[in-house]
Amino acid sequence: MDGGWEVAMAHVIDEFLERLGRGEIPTAEFLPPAVRGTVRLDVESDKRTDQWFVTMQKGKARVARAGKEPEAVMRGSRPAFDRLASGEETFVSLLFRNDIIVEGNIQLVDRFSRLFPSPRSAHHPREFARKERRKT
User: Sign of the C-alpha dihedral, residues 54, 56, 62, 67?
Assistant: First the structure.
């Protein structure tokens, strides 16, 4: 593995959250106005834990490095969060393998996790069925 690639990957989650905070990632279709609350991300690397607070309210997400007591906490390694933020893996797959651990309001985390990109190889079931029908 090329060392330059590792350096570039080291900041994927940070870049994603910064873009989310600047409003560069659309939230309206994934965060209905009724979704309200704060999720804290504990991104662990080596002997350090970086914390990010994402507060969702009225279809928007606000991102900060400090915040009030969250309704939910997502905890995991930087590589796991980087894979999530790059669309390489889904939240559910990381959760089931315990690469990311959730404490608190899982429904809030589920809504928040929909902001992350889908894996590039993912297909919507209806679109997949349409393509398969066209083949026959």
Answer: negative
Strand order in the sheet with 37-45: 60-64, 48-57, 37-45, 72-77, 100-104
pLDDT digits (tens, 9 = 90+) for 40-52: 999 999 889 999 9
Pairwise CA distance, residues 6 & 91, whole Å:
21
Give which of 22, 23, 73, 69 is closest to 44, Cα–Cα.
73
pLDDT computed for residue 123 by the predictor: 56
Q: At what angle do helices 12-21 and 78-86 cross, to 10 degrees?
A: 60
Write the pLDDT tens digit of every residue in 98-136: 999 999 999 999 999 999 998 765 555 666 667 667 776
Helices (DSSP H) in the chain: which residue ranges?
3-9, 12-21, 78-86, 91-96, 106-113, 125-135
